[in-house]
Amino acid sequence: MMDHRQQTSRYTAEVAIDVPYDVSGRYTYAVPPKLSERVAIGSRVLVPFGRRRMEGIVVALHQDSRDIPPSGGWAADRPPFIDIGTPSPTGDDGPVRGGSGELGARKLKFLLDVLDETPPFTEELVDLARDFSEAMLYPLYRTLISMLPPSMKTEERVRIRWNGGDEPLIALPEEVELLEWVKANGPVDKKTLLMRFPDAEPILDLFIERGWLAEERLRTHRGRAKTMKVVVPVHGADILQKAAEAVRGERQKAVLALLAEHGRMPLQALIRATGATSASIRALAQAGWVRVEEASALRRPSVDPSWQKPPVALSDDQRRVVEAIWADIERGDAAPVLLHGVTGSGKTEVYLTLIERMLSNGKTALLLVPEIALTPMMLARVQHRFGDNVAVLHSGLSAGERFDEWQRIRRGEVGVVVGARSAVFAPLERIGLIILDEEHEGSYKQEETPRYHAREVALWRARRHGAALVLGSATPSMESYAYARAGRYRLMVMPKRVGGARLPSVRIVDLRREGGGDRLVSPPLSAAIDERLKRGEQIILLQNRRGYANIVLCRRCGRAVECPHCAVTLTYHRTDEALRCHYCGFEQPMVERCPSCGSTHLLKLGGGTQRVEEALAAEFPAARVIRMDRDTTQRKGAHEDLLGRFMRGEADILIGTQMIAKGLDFPKVTLVGIVSADSMLALPDFRAAERTFQLVTQVAGRAGRGTLPGEVVVQTFAPDHYSIRAAVDGRYEAFFAEELARRKKGSYPPFYRLVVIHAAHAQASLARETLFVISDRLRMRVGEETIVIGPTPAPIPKLRDRFRFHTLIKYKREPRLGALLRAALEDVQREVKRHRIEIAVDFDPQSLM
Q: Measured between alpha carbons, how far is 666 from 659 in angstroms, rounded to an integer?
């Protein structure tokens, strides 16, 4: 490998390209001399591929063919999924697969262009993507591109133009109309053209082939930097003050006086402050007093100051943990730290103190939170401590804000990044500390491909940088706590709340005896709410289901109204009288008659957040209520707005799903009610009990965090279930011991690791038979301790018109599992490609649903 500034004509680039059914997707191209100064590892480039021009990402650079090592991926010893040997239109040979080492046998194609001034990917992120691509059996290009926010990606625009020459001698009227329209309007966007002529695509292809029309392909960036006009004083403040006295216009006087006081100012801000016009400022520029320049305008996410907290003196527990972690860092101890602190024990202050020390040592820090809802609170506290040295990344930002924040990080302008799961890919350099707050949360695992877990990515990056990794939680995941018990993580415990605050008292309401019929809010919980409202205190109610009723049932035939595309019932939303599928997004108006038998006798069963809200409005009409679920938080800034209003005391009751269950700190909340604590226990998922314990413990921890004592009311039909009993009693160790015994008996993590292979197709038989072949191949090849179960229908057997099957693999030691999976997938590649069967492999799944 060589420095990219010393390229020669034999300089080559290994490029990852998005090619369907090609897991490796790496090809070698020659770098033309004109691009040699711009190409670097991590650059996005435009390359010829067959008859197309495609975007690729440079993942390696080589002096010549002899420097190219054999590929470490699937392509090293197996043929690619598709044949890419199609000659280009000019007769040149196609690109060479990365790592073949046989460049002498074929002529390399040249890279066409470099798409960025600065490579969007650091060499570290390229190496990370390569390792995870191999581990997850996912194409390298798609692994890399998933690291970028949408606004950093590019898109291709296709334009059609008249190519000159003679028109066709014989043409239908509609063909003539299309040609004349293109001639009259110049190069036109193909999408616009097809909107005007919807059936014209075959005609377009013919006219392009005949040479009457031509196709232009342009690749543009989705996001771009925003600029603004800035007025810059040409002279010093003293001269500007004298000039202000000399000019005649009052508004021009005000402009010069303001610039003398503040220096350069944005044009629009200056106009608003003085009432001047653009023309009057241009006149000052012509007179030589000022000049108007273009400057970048950073789009920064706003921060609600009500969340800010000043630094506080550390408690004994906090100081003990900080000093122990810092001693490990100074010794170079690379073992991850599991910080097990009860709710309200002050873990955030520990994080901030460690970040402060890391910044003073010239290193950077990455702080992850599991929910967008937690980001405003955490960002406010971090920004209050570290100012503009902080950037934030999460999907709730506008496209422009994410673009600008990402660019600030890439340019090395910030030392701290706060964000949700995808922020783990932030292009930070010199990382000294990575923190996963609420490390137990399943939302750290991405459920769409590539199915990475932020904890695994954080571990990789921490090792790469020699950084400390801190995993914090009041309810650690079973795996993390088992690793700590086994010595793979260092366990640190914070058993007390800070400031002398006590853990809340907990009361169980057995809904079998005290439920009050079909009431969602039981009499005991209702009485507790009434008491808090009279005292002017705040209440949080958790109902982990959105909508109004999750089942609309016919009393005559007993059938529920189901989604036509999924094997699930539609949820009734009362606010707009709609039935919605929470999986595929299908929506229809509420039905008046049963779709199966036509009866008008329909029952709305189950209760979501909307129904709880309605019940509270009926019983406590004077109470100010905020509902927080996916339906109310879709608009930008909704999380910050709703939580900020509650923080400022503008509401008495906050109702919400699990997004309000963790990490939030409201000093005036003295009552937490859990409407249905056992709603997850019936799910066919081995983590159901663990999630129930975590959810009940976490939401209970929102009560009594200030000076006022707190109370938790837990409504349940299963008061004796070990997960609920342990959560109510605050006994993590008891829950861990019971759940560990059950996991061992069932061969589940942490005793076994899991892999799920998913298959889906519109024809159930195709998905099932393809997965049967894969499963059968694996059974014959894996070790004796490895268990292969399936294929079986998925718990939700149909989603988005596709039937779903999965095979579950449980293993302890299977060092060749990746290779065996690749071989089994290769055995069915023809059928998969021919019938477009969806196959996905999920390592260490968080759910079996």
A: 15
Q: What is the DSSP letter of 65?
A: G
Q: What is the pLDDT of residues 787-811, one digit of tens each?
A: 999 999 999 999 999 999 999 999 9
Q: State the Cα–Cα distance between residues 18 and 231, nearest whole angstrom.
A: 46
Which residue in this structure is represented by tokens 């197709």?
761
Contact present, 550 and 608 (Cβ < 8 Å): yes
* Crossing angle between the packed helical segments 173-185 and 201-210, to the nearest 10 degrees: 70
Residue 790: both structure tokens together: 């399936």
Per-residue tokens: 17: 């390209």
Rounded-to-integer distance, Cα 297 and Cα 300, Å: 9
Place of tokens 């998969």: 832
CA atoms within 13 A on the CB side of 836: 2
Q: Are residues 809 and 757 in contact, defined by beta-carbon separation less than 8 angstroms?
A: yes
- CA angle (709, 715, 721) in 5-degree steps: 105
Among candidates 520, 501, 827, 832, which has minimal Cα distance to 669? 501
Helix (H, G, I), strand (E, B) or coil at 53: strand
623-681: pLDDT as tens digits: 999 999 988 888 888 888 898 899 889 999 999 998 888 778 888 999 999 999 888 88
The model carries a pTM of 0.84
Classified as helix, coil or strand, 694 is helix
Instruction: Please name the amino acid found at residue 524.
Output: P
**Closest among 550, 704, 525 to 629, alpha carbons compared:** 550
Handedness of CA 351, 354, 360, 361 (dihedral sign): negative
Q: CA 694 to CA 732: how far, in whole Å?
A: 9
> What pairing do the DSSP bridges indicate for beta strands 538-542 and 416-419?
unpaired
DSSP annotation of 685: -
Radius of gyration of the chain (CA): 31
Query: At 639, which amino acid appears?
Result: H
Would you say 409 and 391 are in contact if contact means Cβ atoms under 8 Å apart?
A: yes
Contact assessment for residue 28 and residue 68, using Cβ atoms and an 8 Å cutoff: yes
Q: What are phi and psi of 567, to 5 degrees?
A: -90, 55
Task: Kindly report the average pLDDT of the chain as a whole number.
Answer: 86
Half-sphere exposure of residue 575, counting CA atoms within 13 Å on the CB side? 12
- Maximum alpha-carbon separation in the chain: 94
Distance CA 121, CA 127 (A): 10
Neighbour-count burial of 731, counting CB atoms closer than 10 A to its CB (0-12 exposed, 13-18 middle, 19+ buried): middle
Q: Which of 120-129, 162-171, 226-235, 811-820 has the lowest mean pLDDT?
A: 162-171
Q: Give, as one character, the DSSP assignment of residue 693.
A: H
- Residue 721: exposed, middle, or buried by beta-carbon count in 10 A (0-12, 13-18, 19+)? middle
Using the Cα atoms of residue 539, residue 540, residue 545 and residue 547 in order, give the sign of their dihedral. Answer: positive
3-state secondary structure of 518: coil
DSSP state, residue 733: H
The tens digit of pLDDT for each residue in 694-721 reads 999 998 888 888 788 899 999 999 999 9
**E strand or H helix at 645:** helix 638-647
Report the C-alpha gap between 106 and 92 in whole angstroms: 9
Q: Are 223 and 399 in contact (CB under 8 A)?
A: yes
Residue 311 has φ and ψ, to the nearest 5°, of -60, 145
Of 18, 230, 38, the C-alpha closest to 133 is 18
Spacing of C-alpha 574 from chain mean position: 30
Two structure tokens written together for 2: 């060589």
Backbone angles phi, psi at 134, to 5 degrees: -65, -45
CA distance 127 to 835: 34
Q: Provide the 3-class DSSP secondary structure of residue 496.
A: coil
Number of Cβ within 10 Å of residue 808's Cβ equals: 17
Distance between CA atoms of residues 23 and 13, nearest Å: 19
Chain centroid to CA 239: how far? 53
